[in-house]
Design a protein that fits this description.
Chitinase A, domain 3, alpha+beta, 3 domains, about 45% helix, Trigger factor, domain 2, Alpha-Beta Plaits, 13 helices, four-stranded antiparallel beta sheet
């Protein structure tokens, strides 16, 4: 077997493999051994038909397809192992058969490889700084949400139902006197004024007293989900059983202490501010780092092979499927409901996937250019930090870690160094405030 390789377009390498007569004959005989149990020829036991008899009956070409696959599976890994980083593969090759005959075969492959990155300017860049700060309005909303969460329901008597009440009702809907599927329920809770039911229904319940019965006339919206109900007038017969009023506790020091364990309202607000600000700082840091990479990407030249982008699209689709699954929906159901296809979904992800791959290539290139590494001392310190967080001895904790976990720690240290380097060597400028209109 002989081979040559040369650069090809779109960050690929063209590999040309020439199988001589001995290599090709070995592959053909391997194809025979693989399939001989299938052959049934008169005069021979099944699976014991000699090679020469089959060749006489069908010709050597009968084995070519399997022989090609056998040769590829044998020689392609050998070539990659021999060449090492000379052919830095990043995706599956595309094989083609250039020539084939009884005394040899020529095979070629287009192999996507790690692209050459002509890194752009990554020092002395000015980037508009993103900042987020916790507002008093947010803390006020947190307090109100906490109070809402601790609210109680109390029965109401002696008055009719009002907006803001929670009612318990039976209802039965009909169109032209005929009941329809999904239009009947008993002991149904409904918050009046929430817009949960179709327009007009909740307004019709307002004013009813406990024990009242009422027919409420409504019209289903033209864009209603059920085709058989779109735009149809309907009548709901409603019986009201209970009226409940949500009672929200007053936000006092005593309430805060009971609900959260904090000493008073101010202590709770201070803790919430600190927690939220940490989240905002992390969010701003991530956005500022991405802005830097975006600026560097503008002056970076790289031809990304389709295989790398396809892999990233695969990851994005997979992650989206997981998020849907956590919310109780399957990807195929989502595509059906949105009248879309997986191909359209993949196409929509492709620009983002391309951007992500380019930025990752930039990160890798800068790390290599600046010779950034993680020392054993730094890795040990990070392991000790993780061990302390779970109250374990660092040495024992490390014994329970595998190489993958240690590699993750090593990579995280290098990434921290990278962005510390970029932050130090570039400038974040405050965003200009828009002039107020007079």
């Amino acid at each position: 077997m002989q081979y040559t390789y040369e650069p090809a377009e779109k960050s690929q390498v063209k590999l040309s493999v020439k199988l001589d007569a001995a290599d090709w004959d070995e592959a053909i005989h391997s194809a025979y051994e693989k399939n001989k149990a299938k052959f049934n020829v008169q005069g021979f036991r099944k699976g014991h038909v000699p090679f020469n008899v089959l060749v006489g009956l069908y010709g050597k070409g009968f084995f070519y397809e399997d022989a090609i696959n056998i040769a590829i599976n044998k020689y392609y890994p050998e070539i990659l192992e021999k060449e090492g980083k000379n052919i830095n593969v990043v995706g599956d090759p595309k094989f083609s058969l250039d020539d084939i005959k009884d005394d040899g075969a020529d095979i070629s492959a287009l192999i996507p490889v790690m692209p050459e990155v002509k890194i752009g300017k990554y020092k002395g860049i000015k980037v508009e700084k993103t900042e987020y700060n916790v507002t008093d309005a947010e803390l006020g909303k947190d307090l109100n949400d906490l109070a809402e969460k601790n609210s109680k329901e109390e029965p109401v008597e002696g008055r009719a139902a009002e907006n803001g009440d929670i009612v318990v009702i039976d209802y039965s809907g009909s169109i032209d006197g005929v009941k329809f599927d999904g239009g009947t329920a008993t002991e149904q809770r409904l918050g009046l004024g929430t817009g949960t039911f179709i327009p007009g229904f909740e307004d019709g319940v307002v004013g009813m007293n406990i024990g009242d019965e009422r027919d409420i006339n409504v019209k289903f919206p033209d864009d209603y989900g059920a085709e058989n109900l779109k735009g149809k007038p309907a009548v709901f017969h409603v019986v009201l059983h209970k009226i409940l009023k949500k009672v929200v506790p007053e936000i006092t020091d005593e309430f805060i202490k009971d609900a959260t364990g904090e000493e008073n309202v101010q202590a709770y607000k201070d803790k919430q501010r600190e927690r939220k600000q940490k989240e905002y700082d992390e969010k701003a840091r991530n956005e500022n780092e991405d802005k830097l990479l975006t600026a560097i990407a503008e002056t970076t030249e790289v031809i990304i092979p389709d295989a790398m982008i396809d892999d990233e699209v695969d990851n994005m689709v997979k992650q989206f499927g997981y998020r849907l699954m956590y919310s109780g929906m399957k990807l195929e159901d989502y595509l059906k409901y949105t009248n879309s296809t997986e191909e359209k979904l993949r196409d929509s992800y492709r620009p983002t996937a391309t951007d992500r791959v380019k930025k990752q290539l930039i990160v890798n290139t800068i790390i290599e250019t600046e010779n950034m590494t993680a020392t054993e001392e730094e890795i040990s310190a990070k392991v000790a930090e993780q061990a302390a967080s779970v109250n374990k001895d660092a040495e024992e904790y490390r014994k329970g870690m595998d190489e993958r976990q240690l590699k993750y720690i090593e990579n995280s240290i290098i990434i921290e160094k990278l962005f510390a380097f970029l932050t130090e060597n570039n400038e974040f400028i405050k965003a200009k405030k828009a002039k107020e209109k007079k």
